[in-house]
Amino acid sequence: MNHEKVLRSVAFVAVGYLIVLIIWAGLLRTHTPPGTLPYQIVGLVAGFGTALALAMMVANRPTAEQRRLAKNGVEGWATVEASRRIDERKMELDLAFTVPGSDSYVGRIVYSIPPSETTRFETGRTLPILVDPSDHHRVLLLPAESFDEK
């Protein structure tokens, strides 16, 4: 999950909702028929919830590059040679990449990895990857479920 994108989306929706609420309270509420205030409030809350859900769905979408790699990438694997935690969320990984049909190579990536997943990236572990066939520097780490890790 991309926490930064989700946080920006929630902040954007909250600011937008405050603007709508100010316009509704200042201008529209006085011109509505009597007895409809509860329905208006329910509509405003439902609109906020819907906008928030849609914004979070869009924020969790893979990037265009990730979608392109998922569609056109070549499957391979990477062996973790070293891993270092940079901060609470990010790790730096030294990897040996193996892609069928090309020479093996080494590289270093910084990846957002939650603390609960740290054991998956220990030295010696093998990770499934997708590599851009035209640029081997573009690599996508795949989820553990997509590879037989037993």
Which short descriptors sum up this protein?
150 residues, alpha+beta, 3 helices, disordered C terminus
Distance between the termini: 25 Å
- Rg (CA only): 23 Å
Q: Largest sheet, described in full?
A: 5 strands, antiparallel
The secondary structure category is: alpha+beta
Which strand order spans the largest sheet, edge to edge or round the barrel? 3-2-1-4-5
Report the strand count: 5
- Percent helix among the residues? 25-40%
Query: What's the tally of helices?
Result: 3
Task: Name the average pLDDT.
Answer: 86
Give, in order, the helices and strands: HHHEEEEE
Ranges where pLDDT stays below 50 over 5 or more residues in a row are 146-150
From the structure provided, what is the oligomeric state, counting identical versus distinct chains?
A: single chain
What spatial form do the alpha-carbon principal axes imply? elongated
Indicate the proportion of strand residues. 25-35%
What does this structure look like?
- α1 (3-28) packs antiparallel against α2.
- By secondary structure, this protein is of the alpha+beta class.
- 10% of the residues are buried.
- The protein is built from 3 helices and 5 strands.
- The protein has a 5-stranded antiparallel beta sheet with strand order 3-2-1-4-5.
- It is elongated and about 75 Å long.
In short:
The chain is of the alpha+beta class. 39% of the residues lie in helices and 29% in strands.
Topology readout:
Blueprint: H1 3-28, H2 37-59, H3 64-72, E1 74-85, E2 90-98, E3 105-112, E4 126-132, E5 135-141
Helix pairs in contact: 1-2
